[in-house]
Specification:
Strands 1-2 form a two-stranded parallel ribbon. It has 2 domains: 86 residues, 2-enoyl-CoA Hydratase, Chain A, domain 1; 62 residues, no CATH class. The chain is mostly helical. Helix content is 51%, strand content 4%. The protein has 9 helices and 2 strands.
Length: 154
Amino acid sequence: SFGGMSINSGLLSSIIATKEGRIGLNGPEVVELEAGIEEVDSKDRQGIWGMIGGEQRLAMGLIDHLVDDDVDKIKDCIHGVYKNGVGQPRSTQVERYLSFLQSVSVEEKVYPIQARKLWKDSSTKEELSESGVGSNQLLTRGARWFKQLTGGAE
């Protein structure tokens, strides 16, 4: 999924994807058109899957289940989600996502394996609370909206 559907996927309690499934704001073709083939070669399927495919999204905490592209396996996974429930919702991990975003340098290209390490190393909620991230000290526009929309709920 791309664009709005990818944004909406962040609202879901559980996301199931295949290895070839791709989740991102812009598709590779759009990125190549806008930024050039040096940024993304939209014909490089392995590279695209490595960057925004199911395995990468699972490693980055953006999906919950990775299954083979098989109807019965997808059905089994859906039934498993209903039977076993869901893990920690992404909506309760705001501080971790903020920590991850703060660890990414916009000055240099971040490769998928580096992104996985940054995600793995991203701080826990407790570490962030001590540093002031997620508190009233964080006054970004998005944080203000989030606080207003959630009534400051933790």
